[in-house]
Design goal:
By secondary structure, this protein is mainly beta. It is built from 2 helices and 9 strands; from the N terminus they run βββββββββαα.
Length: about 170
């Protein structure tokens, strides 16, 4: 089993320009708060694959992992378990001048904050809604019943049109 790594020392790889390494390790992924709900990975430590390439003045990095995510469905509130595939890339060229796009916020000197990068990459890979199934019908807006398990004829009497309210007040004797 690979060792858990939250801060990875890039300098210990002793890479020369043009060289690269592939590292399989584990990283801690904290629970996420998304849409007012908390989602957790099945295990606190997620196996990740890190590709590190040395460039002339820095590093080119690639992070890949699949994180199981457990929490409530955003439509029906039943448990929704999904696996989120992450494939993220970063470039760190600290001597690139004024170009901030070539400076990675996760690299400080020779140290890579793998934990922060994995969390941010996971958040960016999330779908717009985490649902139990793609065809989830959600909850009834009137009574709150789960429409996935409700009878096919589930319906409610429609409310009277409020524009006709004054006519209902008329009394005929």
């Amino acid at each position: 089993m690979a060792q858990r790594t939250d801060i990875f020392d890039l300098g210990r790889l002793s890479l020369h320009s043009g060289e690269g390494r592939r590292i399989d390790t584990h990283v801690t992924v904290d629970p996420l708060s998304f849409g007012g709900q908390t989602y957790e990975t099945g295990a606190r430590e997620v196996p990740v694959r890190l590709d590190v390439s040395r460039t002339m003045g820095g590093y080119a990095l690639r992070l890949r992992f699949a994180a199981p995510l457990n929490g409530p469905c955003m439509r029906c509130l039943e448990p929704a378990g999904r696996t989120i595939d992450v494939d993220a890339r970063e470039v760190d060229q600290p001597n690139s001048g004024d170009d901030d796009e070539l400076i990675s916020p996760y690299v400080d000197g020779e140290e890579l904050d793998l934990r922060a990068w994995a969390r941010d990459a996971l958040v960016l890979a999330l779908p717009t809604q985490i649902v139990c199934t793609e065809d989830c019908k959600g909850l009834c807006p009137v009574c709150g019943e789960n429409l996935n398990t409700a009878a096919p004829d589930h319906q409610h009497e429609s409310a009277p049109d409020p524009r006709w309210a004054k006519l209902r007040e008329l009394k005929f004797e």
